[in-house]
Amino acid sequence: MSLINTKKYFTPQKMMRTVIISLIPLIISSIYFFGWRSFALLLWVTIFGVATEWIFEKKYGKKVSEAIFVTCILYVLTLPARTPFWIASLGIIFGVVFGKEVFGGFGRNIFNPALVARAFVYVSFPEQLTIQWSKSALGFPGGFGTYLTENIDAISQATPMLVFRETGQMASSIKLLLGNVAGSLGETSAILIILAGVYLIYKKVAAWQTMAGVIVGFTGLSSILYFLGFAQVPNPIFGVLAGGFLFGTVFMATDPISSPKTKEGKWIYGILIGIVTVIIRGYALFAGGMMFAILVGNTFAPIIDEGVNHYKKSKKGVKNKGKEVTV
């Protein structure tokens, strides 16, 4: 049964519906951890996201793609629960226009639109996106019994990555796995994200090569720096579980449009993202790093595919030439 009841206004995309299904547990968990405001924010952003794409597609007589729902959900799940509605709507409009429509619409975009939206609001409104956090609810009914959980007013209760940067303390792996820590709406529960990743791989919607590449690149470099004694780089396990790393690995880096198409390219692309994430987290201004690392990867994705295909053709040419000489 289709998630969209009519084909009159939307272009059906089975792959996108699969992604939406994988995101449902994270949407529910965002309500549990931070309150019903997260769901209200999702509805608000979706209205503006769909309307923006409809305005552009209408000019060309095209329908709105179901991918816009995935873009809106992913974008909202990367936001803090207290993000002002006007900032959230401004971000999705910017992401759809400059991350998608300026390239010609769905299937032609170079960058992930959800990340373009997130990066825009992140650098434009740093106070709202990096300081105003909410406590994670515990027990029953959790956030289901409130509109918005309590505000955080101390660095010791902020997101795990921010706390590590300020104090060097690392949250327990159990908390990071379950998700009862402060953070963006859909990025706190590592176990739910991992299960979603397994589901997407099983459904052949997301490339496991990309996910594996990101993890290899990240854990490889972070392990080297950590064991060499660089204090600004946490142990690899904490690094993987914190800061939206898994969310970006499973849902953002694997975007089939803005990532490489070749298998070898997916590995290179993933490793590049993992390495850049470590560098940004440890030595740049930003505590997260995953968002910008994936955008960097998006930039190089076409070049990576071009290089891989060129290498294959060259290797094939040399092999054929060798056969001719043998004959």
UniProtKB/TrEMBL annotation:
Protein name per Swiss-Prot or TrEMBL: Na+-transporting NADH:ubiquinone oxidoreductase subunit B
A Pfam family it matches: NQR2_RnfD_RnfE
Entry keyword annotation includes Transmembrane helix: yes
One cellular-component annotation, GO: plasma membrane
Listed InterPro entries: NqrB/RnfD (IPR004338), RnfD_bac (IPR011303)
Key words, A-Z: Flavoprotein, FMN, Membrane, Phosphoprotein, Translocase, Transmembrane, Transmembrane helix, Transport, Ubiquinone
Residue intervals passing through the bilayer: 15-33, 39-56, 68-98, 181-202, 214-231, 237-255, 267-296
Entry superkingdom: Bacteria
One BP annotation, GO: transmembrane transport
Keyword Zinc: no
Lineage: Bacteria, Bacillati, Bacillota, Clostridia, Eubacteriales
